[in-house]
Design goal:
Distance between the termini: 41 Å
Order of helices and strands: HHHHHH
Number of helices: 6
Structural class: mainly alpha
Helix content: 40-55%
Number of strands: 0
Oligomer: single chain
Largest sheet: none
Strand content: under 5%
Amino acid sequence: SGRVSDALAEGSWHEAILFLEQMRRQNRVPKLGALMRWVRGCDAAGADDRMALTCLDAILRTTTPSMVAPDDGLDDAAWGPDVVHLHQPWEPTTCGDDSAHRATQAATKPDDATQQHFRARFSVVGHEKAIDRRPPNYH
């Protein structure tokens, strides 16, 4: 795992991927601290660097082998750049028409008896306005 950390520190994505593939083939699962260090070193959040995403994919496949289908193999398709996908950040205000959201809320709202059943079992322990929170909650 030290070789992976060194490769990530140097920004050598290809080298790190090769070391991760070796670990995966040997069924060596790194410790949680190594995983956190590698993800932080990879720093693929918000990156447009496809190799950083490929490296992140390799890290995830090495640290959670139980989540990878046993028949996917270690071929180029499994380790390709299209395994981890980037998505646009969620913005609650970008949706102009919220009628679908309101319809879903109305369809899933519990009836009055169910609400009373659960309301009796909970109590408010604290309240603060969203704008007063640190950091402020604008939603």
